[in-house]
Amino acid sequence: MIITISGALGSGKTTVAKILAKHFSLNHYSTGDFMREMAQKKGITLLELSKLAEKDTTIDKELDDRQVNLGKEEDNFIIDARLGWHFIPTSIKIFLDVTDDKAAKRIFDAKRDDEKYNLSIEETKRKIKQRKDSEIKRYKEYYNINYYDSSNYDITLDTTNKSPQEVAQIIIEYIKDFS
Questions:
Q1: Rounded Cα–Cα distance for residues 59 and 52 (Å)
Q2: What is the pLDDT of residues 44-86, one digit of tens each?
Q3: How far apart are CA 179 and CA 164, in angstroms?
Q4: In angstroms, what CA-CA distances link 25 with 37, 83, 96?
Q5: Where do runs of H (alpha helix) occur along the chain?
Q6: Which of 80, 65, 86, 94 is nearest to 32 (CA)?
Q7: pTM of the model
Q8: In the chain, fewer beta carbons within 10 Å around the N or the C end?
Q9: Where do the domains of the chain lie, and which CATH numbers do they carry?
């Protein structure tokens, strides 16, 4: 079983993916982790990497190839990746959404080392919008797709007022019915 989880920034993709990976005994991968590694190697922030990717197609190409290869090489895993559903079309495709306010609070409260530029919730909200706009622009230009289009997914969930465990349980029930 291959599960791809896409979604809005701060929607809980990685947290939910980890819960599902444990529940289903699957390997877990995250393009967010892949991007953080790339940004760290370049000595820049995630936002700076996103902006750089608008001009340097090799960044997205590297991330895309990693996903395509995973889909070819492994049969049982979960990946949280904005475009995982596109690069691994045989997967169970999930989209997690969240309001901008809740996303900003979650990201700000996470206090990730690579997001130290998030000095306030309002600033975090601005950075989320910039990253989202950058991604939508790139994905439209590179692939002519919009990852926010719910028709790309088997199930779409709003995580704004749900815990990661509640979201994971809904997905577990869905997958039982899906199988």
A1: 8
A2: 887 788 788 888 989 988 989 999 999 999 999 999 999 999 9
A3: 22
A4: 25, 23, 21
A5: 13-24, 31-42, 46-53, 57-73, 84-87, 100-110, 121-143, 164-178
A6: 80
A7: 0.86
A8: C
A9: 2-178 (3.40.50.300)
